[in-house]
Specification:
The protein is an alpha/beta fold and 365 residues long. The protein contains 9 helices and 17 strands. The protein folds into 2 domains: 2-181, VC0802-like (2-Layer Sandwich), CATH 3.30.2130.30; 204-364, Vaccinia Virus protein VP39 (Rossmann fold), CATH 3.40.50. The chain binds S-adenosylmethionine (SAM).
Length: 365
């Protein structure tokens, strides 16, 4: 089976390590490729059939897609791949020609192997890059091709609201993917525990990537700008045994973080502190690790507020941080200046896609 896996751009290597560790446990041959056909935010996993023994001792096939949907902390979607193809030059083509190419391609695919004709289906689409066609055009064209192909096997049923089977068609640059979306309409990064929605919350998948980058060893951990608690909650859900602190300046967000932690079942694993990260040393004597999604400044009035805030925060961090920090922000100049002027060293830097932007992530010691 070939699975097309989606995640945030820039964390494919971390997702690959996670997926490889999960598939290793199944004891079957597999291969995971990052950025298939050069597409960012995607992985392709080729996995042999896996089996388990049920309570009556019978050998049963294990659904690898369900297994990954339930266990992965970094993936957004698990898609059973039907086909992937590069359509050279599709971006420049006139809409009718581009759509005809997609239709001709899809109608030759054995979609009947993936959906019973008695089951309702819908096509969801995703498009990124320069094209003269829209994602709605793609969904309509692919839906028509699938419908017409299934008609030779019976009477296909389309249900756009509550389909039994979701086909996912993606056109990213000149690469086209078609598969069965086993995740459903809600991406895995939208965690069921989230009852308080912070306006600038971090995707849970990225929170887990930052946690991986921090290479934690069980020592005391804090998120000094914890907002709705995404990073501390995800860390607690991983079964972290060290202390976890969530510090936030605004009561409304801290209350939201507590509500989220309650909903996630990890309220008693996290210490919540209402406080100012620019006065960190008043709250902590020492902490081994700090991982945080810094304020980006959109909500802060004055332009100079961000460099000042970062300078004050990293000055305080230098007094308490023992091991390692991981920070993510759009404000490259301000963070690099604050890191360097406060005696920290940048050990790693990468760009991560978050909400349409590429944000900067730093590992510092
Ligand atoms: C980008 S948000 C963090 C979002 C969080 N990662 C989440 O997923 O909900 C930054 C947070 O820092 C808080 N903040 C701003 N200035 C602060 C300060 N001086 N001390 C502590 N928190 C502060 C903001 O209220 C905001 O909730």
């Amino acid at each position: 089976m070939r699975l097309l896996l989606t995640t945030a751009r820039g964390i494919e290597d971390i997702a690959k390590a996670e997926i490889s560790a999960l598939l290793d446990k199944l004891g079957v041959p597999f291969r995971v490729e990052e950025k298939p056909l050069g597409v960012e935010g995607r992985l392709l996993a080729e996995v042999d059939e896996a089996f388990y023994t049920d309570e009556k001792g019978r050998k049963r096939e294990l659904s690898v897609s369900t297994y990954l949907n339930e266990r992965s902390r970094l993936l957004h979607r698990v898609i059973v791949e039907i086909s992937s193809e590069r359509f050279e030059g599709i971006g420049e083509e006139k809409p009718e020609k581009a759509l005809q190419r997609i239709e001709d391609f899809v109608k030759e695919l054995p979609v009947e192997r993936f959906v019973k004709v008695s089951e309702s289906f819908a096509v969801r689409s995703f498009r990124k890059g320069e094209h003269k066609i829209t994602s709605v055009d793609v969904a309509r064209t692919v839906g028509k091709a699938i419908f017409e192909r299934l008609e030779s096997f019976g009477s296909p049923k389309v249900n756009l609201d509550h389909p039994a089977v979701i086909f996912r068609a993606e056109l990213i640059g000149d690469v086209f993917f078609l598969g069965i979306d086993t995740t459903g309409d809600s991406s895995l990064h939208k965690r069921p525990w989230r009852v308080y929605d912070h306006p600038a919350h971090l995707k849970a998948s990225i929170a887990n990537a930052l946690i991986e980058l921090a290479n934690l060893d069980g020592g005391p951990f804090m998120d000094p700008f914890c907002g709705s608690g995404t990073i501390p909650i995800e860390l607690a859900l991983r079964g972290y045994t060290g202390s976890i602190t969530c510090l936030e300046k605004f009561r409304k967000h801290l209350t939201g973080a507590k509500m989220n932690a309650l909903s996630a079942g990890v309220f008693d694993k996290i210490e919540f502190i209402l406080g100012d990260a620019t006065r960190l040393s008043e709250h902590f004597k020492s902490v081994d690790f700090a991982v945080s999604n810094l304020p980006y400044g959109l909500k802060i009035g004055r332009k100079s507020a961000i460099p000042r805030l970062y300078m004050d925060f990293f000055g305080e961090l230098a007094k308490v941080l023992e091991k390692r920090g991981v920070f993510i922000t759009t404000e490259k100049r301000a963070i690099e200046k604050a890191i360097e002027e406060n005696g920290f060293e940048i050990k790693h830097h990468r760009l991560i896609g978050h909400g349409g932007l590429m944000v900067h992530a730093y590992v510092i010691e």
